[in-house]
């Protein structure tokens, strides 16, 4: 993709020199060498589009690696032909071209790929892709908070720890409570003890290098957090503690306790000076209910916790206007385009442009791969696509004389590096970070 604007080529070339801060990822390890050529090039998100374009039965066939490739290919081909122009497909095609020299997804191409699948258990291969993508640092949500609390944190290269919050507030049983505090060698018996243990655990995570909290509860419940009383939360907590066989229903039975804990954790985030990343908008997979994930539901939470900084994910796709309003209206809200650049590239190009005229540009985080470790080549392709989207949006604004080229370069560097570096307290030095 490109813009017809006269400055596009110069601006796009400049974006290649900016090191990326990957604001959200899930690469828990340098992954093993793939054994299936289909899975080697088709990441989990593209599987969703293929599923949307076919059927439950077809998707089972396509990704059943026990079946011969020749048997699966006709089913994959039908689905691919119906969805090959989406943003996810853009990522797959770019990754195939870059790393396997294949222009099109065909049976012959898959056979050739099967002979040279990249082994990412070799850290050299892993780092090579990060270098090619220009990814300097990755903020990783890999469920590593317990290891960090135990002092046994091990992360993939160039990673910074993110503390996942849902396990700590979506509690429904005695076992879950005790499992959460087990890394501290504790058994808790009251709500006060549990809160103290969580604060200790989160503090240890920060000491181990954590740079943010992250919550993706929108997959399982609405984002309209209520503000229940301590007594209501304590009643629910005591009920499960009194009998280990009891279990609160989720999400409704957990709400007095879970919502109370969530507000307490927002205060801990404030005290630890760690921002909170929240999943908003589109969800992975298919057959999801989208209205519950609209960032506008977070308004009372954002209004109350004015000293807690919020990084709202996925450009709130498809609700751009609501997120632009929140970022414009609340000093403690930033917009994060992680994942969104491949969910809907055109949406992002338009929202990047609109954000310039409506939101302080220092509140935009332009890239996050949001991929597991076995999709590393797609992280490169996603970065390539994100640079396209940003260059197109900014070049068009230069062409219409809303910006000049130097201003566009300043904004681009902020969106890809400077803003996140400051927001997450990464302390990366500007000198020596140009690729």
Automatic annotation (TrEMBL):
Keywords from the named record: Hydrolase
Pfam family, one: Amidohydro_2
Any coiled-coil regions, as ranges: none
InterPro entries: Amidohydro-rel, Metal_Hydrolase
Domain Amidohydrolase-related: 251-426
GO MF term (any one): hydrolase activity
Name the record gives this protein: Predicted metal-dependent hydrolase of the TIM-barrel fold
Species of origin: Anaerolinea thermolimosa
């Amino acid at each position: 993709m490109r813009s017809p604007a006269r400055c596009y080529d110069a601006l796009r070339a400049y974006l290649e020199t900016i090191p990326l801060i990957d604001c959200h990822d899930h690469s828990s390890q340098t992954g093993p060498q793939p054994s299936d050529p289909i899975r080697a090039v088709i990441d989990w998100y593209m599987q969703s589009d293929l599923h949307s374009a076919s059927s439950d039965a077809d998707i089972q066939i396509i990704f059943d690696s026990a079946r011969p490739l020749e048997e699966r290919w006709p089913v994959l081909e039908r689905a691919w032909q119906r969805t090959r122009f989406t943003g996810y497909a853009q990522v797959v095609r770019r990754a195939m071209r870059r790393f396997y020299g294949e222009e099109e997804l065909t049976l012959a191409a898959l056979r050739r790929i099967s002979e040279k699948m990249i082994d990412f258990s070799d850290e050299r291969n892993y780092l090579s892709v990060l270098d090619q993508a220009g990814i300097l640092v990755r903020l990783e949500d890999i469920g590593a908070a317990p290891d960090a609390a135990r002092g046994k944190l091990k992360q993939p290269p160039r990673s910074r720890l993110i503390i996942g919050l849902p396990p700590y507030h979506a509690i429904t049983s005695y076992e879950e409570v005790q499992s959460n505090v087990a890394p501290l060698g504790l058994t808790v018996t009251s709500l006060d003890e549990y809160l103290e243990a969580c604060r200790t655990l989160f503090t240890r995570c920060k000491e181990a290098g954590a740079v943010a909290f992250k919550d993706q509860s929108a997959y399982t419940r609405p984002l309209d957090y209520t503000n229940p009383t301590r007594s209501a939360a304590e009643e629910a907590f005591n009920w499960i503690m009194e009998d280990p066989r009891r279990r609160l229903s989720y999400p409704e039975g957990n709400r007095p306790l879970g919502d109370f804990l969530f507000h307490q954790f927002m205060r801990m985030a404030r005290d630890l000076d760690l921002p909170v990343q929240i999943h908003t908008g589109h969800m992975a997979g298919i057959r999801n209910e989208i209205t519950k994930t609209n960032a506008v539901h977070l308004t009372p939470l954002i209004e109350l916790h004015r000293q807690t900084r919020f990084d709202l994910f996925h450009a709130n796709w498809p609700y751009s206007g609501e997120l632009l309003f929140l970022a414009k209206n609340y000093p403690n809200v930033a917009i994060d385009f992680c994942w969104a650049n491949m969910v809907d590239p055109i949406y992002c190009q338009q929202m990047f442009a609109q954000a310039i005229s409506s939101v302080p540009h220092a509140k935009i985080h332009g890239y996050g791969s949001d991929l597991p470790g076995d999709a590393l080549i797609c992280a490169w392709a996603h970065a390539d696509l994100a640079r396209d989207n940003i260059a197109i949006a900014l070049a068009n604004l230069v062409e219409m004389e809303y910006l000049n080229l130097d201003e566009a370069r300043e904004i681009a560097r902020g969106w890809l590096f400077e803003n996140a570096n400051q927001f997450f307290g990464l302390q990366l030095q500007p000198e020596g970070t140009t690729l």
